[in-house]
Amino acid sequence: MASTDTPAVKDGNDLAGLEAGLDALETVQTSRTPFRTTFTQKIVPPVTAVVLVLLVWQALVSFNIVDDPSKLPSPGDVWGEVEDAWLQGTLLDYIWTSVSRGLLGFLMALAIGTPLGLLVARVRFVRAAIGPILSGLQSLPSVAWVPPAVIWLGLNNSMMYAVILLGAVPSIANGLVSGVDQVPPLFLRAGRTMGATGLRGTWHIVMPAALPGYLAGLKQGWAFSWRSLMAAEIIASSPELGVGLGQLLENGRNTSSMSMVFLAILLILVVGIAIDLLIFSPLERRVLRSRGLLVKS
Amino acid sequence: MATALAKAADAGTSVEYSARIEHVSKSFAGPAGQQLVLDDITLDVAPGEFVTLLGASGCGKSTLLNLVAGLDRPTAGDITTDGRPALMFQEHALFPWLTAGKNIELALKLRGTPKAERRGRAEELLALVRLQGAYGKRVHELSGGMRQRVALARALAQDSRLLLMDEPFAALDAITRDVLHDELTRIWRETGLSVLFVTHNVREAVRLAERVVLLSSRPGRVAREWRVDIPQPRRIEDAAVAELSREITEELRGEIRRHGQH
Q1: What are the backbone angles phi and psi of residue B88, rounded to the nearest 5°?
Q2: Which residues, 6 or more positions from A182, have their beta carbon under 8 angstroms from its beta carbon?
Q3: For each successive 10 residues of chain B (262 residues), what is the average pLDDT?
Q4: Is the CB of B158 less than 8 angstroms away from the CB of A211?
Q5: Which residues of chain A does B110 touch, with a Cβ-Cβ cutoff of 8 Å?
Q6: How far is B197 from chain A (nearest CA, A)?
């Protein structure tokens, strides 16, 4: 065979060049979507929808299709309510009372739901014991917890947090469990051959691999926290609790002020959407994009 | 009976083998009772040796590799390795939440490399597989061939004396596979690693190995062995490679034919 030194060296250079060529040919170029496209595809449609709803609403009032203001206030009346609350300085108080409760409750649910989910996902006995109950609890409307929570804890903030926890912990734990279940076995095997077993395996392989499912659980957990809190605030109003959005809604009903009821409903909706848009969606998109899982449509 | 992974490492530095597989059998519970997958396999891999395990479907070659990797235990027999072997899969198995460089650094970290040295070592390993500049790349930004090279770099980061490879190039296109054969031969010669390489591709086995071990199927047994004396660097289209491949293919076909006879 003619394998002297010179051809071998030449061979090596050839190989490097060949490889560089293959790499260049096979690498996919990705570019960011221009803002114009984002604007026309992501921003214009929802704005159009909101404007349409407002137009229909205004039309219902203007053309006297619904002519009882105690049933349907005009958009202007509700806006007047917003202005009043803003000028009295109470608008942000309403929002902050509920949002601070909701976020604190959510953080507590996070602290409890995460280890619980990991235990259920990783320990077979625990999964068999409480796994079905945990997923069953997800379908129990959390408003059902309000009466017992009031009896156990009284009309105070602890009772609100208890209701939030009972609503959100199962979602967060279940999200983590399904995230862990979807971790490809290949990653676990690869991790084990690298020496990532036990807690190290959980920290370096299982948790990051389960992150997308976990985030989906967190998102749902927030939705459940917010819903549970509103249920608790509507049912359990007491002067010591301060006025949150739920109480605002209940006050509107008690004083037969339909525009206040609408204001409360809109604020509850807006806050729920805002938290999702400002916190969870960017987080989720970032995680998915970094893994190449966000497919451009 | 138990897999003694650390035995050789404890015994001292002078080992005459990288992996020693002694009378290993493995059976799994199947629909028709216990099913024997591997039957009395005995095989040594010498330090620095490149061995390919060749066989048709059902010969249990991946099962054997899992046993050597310590991912599973043999039903009977002993497997001793010189330290914990590194394992490379057909799929790249890179973690998508880490960059190419961080994948390698994770292997270094789990092995106990001090934090200060990890970055430099990862860059060195990327240079070894000729992927300088890929440190910050995400897995989905790399081509199939590049992913397998990062996976190889990550396996090398474990600093094992033995590298186990489970059909690592089977999913690649022919041109890329050819290049990676050259690359693997070069790296094997530079590092002096022992390699146990599983494949069902006869030419690939002959192209790479110093020794080709043919396994029979259901259950897997060592059917025959060939020493490959063709000097490296070889090419897959070399006449000598083709000639030996023809001989081995005949034998392999004979093994497969036996299963159709009853």
Answers
A1: -120, 140
A2: A210, A213
A3: 42 69 86 83 90 83 88 88 89 91 93 90 90 89 89 91 91 87 90 92 91 86 86 84 88 82 64
A4: no
A5: 194-196, 200, 204
A6: 16
A244 has a pLDDT exceeding 50: yes
Candidate from B71, B111, B144 with C-beta closest to A195: B111
DSSP state of B16: S
Query: In 3D, which of B168, B176, B151 has the Cα closest to residue B205?
Result: B168
A297 pLDDT above the threshold of 60: no
To test the contact with chain A by mutation, choose from B165, B182, B230 the residue with the greatest count of A C-beta atoms within 10 A, namely B182
Chain B residue numbers with beta carbons less than 8 Å from the beta carbon of A287 are: 97
How do residues B55-77 score in pLDDT, each as one tens digit?
887 678 888 888 998 888 888 88
Residue type, B60: G
B130 and A200: CB-CB below 8 Å? no
Q: Is B97 touching A (CB cutoff 8 A)?
A: yes
E-state strands within chain B: 19-30, 33-45, 50-54, 76-81, 86-88, 162-166, 194-199, 211-215, 222-227
As separate numbers, helices (DSSP H) first and strands (DSSP E) second, chain A gives 14, 0
CATH pick for B7-85+161-258 out of 3.40.50.300, 3.60.21.10, 3.60.40.10, 3.30.565.10: 3.40.50.300
Instruction: Report the chain A residue with the minimal C-alpha distance to residue B174.
Output: A22
Q: In this structure, is the dihedral angle defined by the CA atoms of residues A274, A275, A279 and A281, taken in order, positive or negative?
A: negative
Give this complex's ipTM. Answer: 0.83
Q: Are residues A194 and B91, on separate chains, in Cβ contact within 8 Å?
A: no
Nearest CA in chain A to B68: A193
Residue ranges of domains in chain B = 7-85+161-258, 95-159
B-chain residues near A193 (CB < 8 A):
69-71, 84-87, 158
A70-290: CATH topology is MetI-like fold (1.10.3720)
- Number of CB pairs, chain A paired with chain B, less than 8 A apart: 100
pLDDT grade for A296, boundaries at 50, 70 and 90: low
* Residue (of A87, A63, A59) closest to A75 by Cα position: A59
**3-class SS of residue B23:** strand
Confirm or reject contact between B163 and chain A (CB < 8 A): no
Q: What is the pLDDT of residue A7?
A: 46
Distance CA B3, CA B79 (A): 5
